[in-house]
Amino acid sequence: MQLTHVDDRGRARMVDVGAKPETFRVARAFGRVRLAAETVELLATGRVAKGDVLAAARVAGIMAAKRCGELIPLCHPLPLTAAGVDLVLRPAAADLVVIGEARVVGKTGVEMEAMTAVAVAALTVYDMCKAVDRGMSIGPVTLLEKSGGRSGHYINPAYGLPAGPGTTATLREGQIVRLLPPAADDCWRFVDDNGAILLAVSVAAVVGCSSWLAPSPLCLAGEAILVAEPVPGGGQGVVKFFVRRPGTVRSGELVALL
User: Fold this and answer.
1) Per-residue pLDDT reduced to its tens digit, 159-204
2) Domains in the chain, start-ordered, CATH in brackets?
3) Which of 18, 81, 99, 240 qualifies as a FRET site for 257, CA 20 to 30 Å off?
4) Is 127 among the catalytic positions?
5) Catalytic residue among 16, 52, 95, 127
């Protein structure tokens, strides 16, 4: 495999994408900011002296995605059609998860825009909280998925898997969803309060996906974001989520545990 940003003389170059067709492209990335317990409490109660940390970080991430071509030397400047940042504070894990997304109709992908959004949002959190917690750490900043272009749909196998065949589920804000461990059908199943299966992921697909070996407190399912909460008497291996950001998940779309 050849590095496209290096020419035949070993010099850095900007790739000429002029002959490539325009396609609809999407990328999503995520990162973590690990926090002291005191910082978690300040963020949860909105008592950080510099102001609304999450709002500032969200706007900073979006602004950074739009300026990615000026920050990364060989990155093409792109007319993004959308950019967004979601931030989820997890007191039990003592961290803040940052999720960035970028979209474009263009000749090259938006992976760098999504990751830049995450990185700058995380740095903004550090800047606004450093007076009380200089020991915060950031990372990893990781691509979760990209779609569009010649290489098609990529899902990072360490975190995400495609939703199973036949999946079309609409998740409503505030809806309760349970993740049940594999049974006779050899699938992880997301079910509603009535036990109806919303989506499934095969055990075979989970093998090698480290984040699924011990289900964690945050899930991305298509467009939706689900946050875990305790399940009193829920049974071993059961994780209960509530839908924080509504959305639809379809067959083949990203289902990730972070």
Assistant:
1) 888 888 888 999 999 999 988 877 766 788 889 988 898 988 877 6
2) 23-155 (3.30.70.640), 160-257 (2.40.33.10)
3) 81
4) yes
5) 127
